[in-house]
Amino acid sequence: MKKEAEQFFTLLRDEIQAFNDKQVISSESGEWIVKGFIDVFKNLYTISGDTKVISKLVELMLFPRFMEFANKHSFKIIPSREQNHYPDLTFIDQSGCKFAVDLKSTYRLSKDRVNTMTLGAFTGYFRNRSSTKNVTFPYAEYAGHFVLGVIYSRVMVSSDEFKIRTLEELKEIPSVIKDLLFFVQPKYRIASDQPGSGNTKNIGAVSKLNDLASGNGSFAALGEEAFDDYWMYYLTSDMARAVDLESSPYKNLASYFAYKNLNSGGKK
Prior knowledge:
The chain is α+β, with helices and mostly antiparallel strands. The chain is built from seven helices and eleven strands.
C-alpha cells in the first residue's frame, strides 16, 4: 500500500498547489473572501477572528473542491460522521485503498513561525489500530495518513460585531485573515516530539512554517515507523503515574534514543 499512498500524495499535492495558484478562497489582494454570515432577510453579520470559526468556515469552503478532486480521480470520499472523529475526510481508490486526510489550520506568529497545530490523538484509535471508536475506519486500514494545512495571517481589525449590515456595505467590511497558504504532507513528516498545547493527548506539529510546508518535521528523516513507535508508547506524567512509574520513560527524541539504545539516526 506504500506505492498507492505515494501516488495519492502526489495527486493531492498537485491539487493543493492549484489552491495556492488560483487563490480559491482569497481575493487578488490576498484577503479572505469571507466577510460574515447572511440570513434569509439579506442581513449581514460580521465575524470575529475566532480560530474555531475560521477553521470551520475554511473547511466548509474547501469541501466542494475535494469533491471535484475525488470525481476527477475516481475516488470515493467519506466525511467524518462526527466533529471529533478521525479523519476529516477519507478517500478510497478503485482498488479499495483508504487514505486519511485531516484538515488543520493555524495562524502565523511571525514571518517564519506559526501557532502550533495538533495532529490528532496519540491514544485511543492511534494505539488500538483495530478500534472503530472515534474513527471512520480503523487506523490500520488506511494506506496513508495526511494533513492538509492552511496557514494564514490574522488581521487586527476593529469591526462592530453588534451591528447588522446590508449587502450594500459588503465592500466596507474588512477581512479578518489574509495571505492563506495551503500545503499537504504525510502526518509523520510534520510531527514534533512534543504533545500539542493544552491537556489533551494530541500529537504536536513543528512550528516553523518552512518545515511544515516542506515536510521537515522531527520524524521526517527517521520514518513513519519511528513516529508510530514514539507516539504509541509516549506517556505524559499523569499517564506514567497511572501505571506506577515515577516518570515517563522518555520526553523527547534524545531521551527516546537513549531509552531504546539507539543513535541519533534511529539505529542501534
